[in-house]
Amino acid sequence: MKTKQRRIFERVVNPLLIKHLVSAHGYDGSCIASGIPIKYLKYFKMVSAQKNAKKVRYRYRGVSKTMPNGYVYNRPQSFCHMNFADTFSVYYR
Questions:
Q1: Residue 34: left if φ>0, alpha if ψ -120 to 50, beta else—which one?
Q2: Are 89 and 82 in contact (CB under 8 A)?
Q3: Do 61 and 78 contact (CB within 8 A), yes or no?
Q4: How do strand 87-92 and strand 56-61 relate by DSSP bridges?
Q5: Residue 72 belongs to what domain range?
Q6: Do β-strands 72-73 and 65-66 pair in parallel, antiparallel, or remain unpaired?
Q7: Which residues contact 50 (CB under 8 A, 6 or more apart)?
Q8: 39 pLDDT exceeds 80?
Q9: Which helix (H) or strand (E) holds 44?
Q10: How far apart are alpha carbons 82 and 93 in whole angstroms?
């Protein structure tokens, strides 16, 4: 891993993964971490783009809301678009 990506992993991504880690006790799903604020998504994508990184999938989470321009975003329960997300989860691929 390059030095910039390593610093980002050590300072941003790894502490967030540890903080938002899904408890393994009694959980059989493939979720690694959930509830991570969307502002950190670019750092996660930068680290996971490395060729030796584990393949992961991002799922976006958010609520239905009214945008400043008056557009009402009513999301289906099983889907949230990245532009309207508040948090995201990381899953094994």
A1: beta
A2: no
A3: no
A4: antiparallel
A5: 3-92
A6: antiparallel
A7: 1, 5
A8: yes
A9: helix 41-48
A10: 18
Which 3 state secondary structure label does DSSP give 57?
Answer: strand
Q: What is the pTM of this model?
A: 0.81
Q: Kindly report, residue by residue over 40-63, the tens digit of the pLDDT.
A: 999 999 999 888 888 999 999 888
Using the structure block, give the residue that is written with the tokens 């584990």.
Answer: 54
Amino acid, res. 76 = P
CA atoms within 13 A on the CB side of 71: 5
The token pair that represents 90 in the structure block: 């990381």
- Residue 37, token pair as written in the block: 């604020």
Count CB neighbours of 80 within 10 A: 20
Q: Tokens for 7?
A: 């610093």
Q: How many domains does the chain have?
A: 1
User: DSSP E strands: which ranges in the chain?
Assistant: 31-37, 56-61, 65-66, 72-73, 87-92
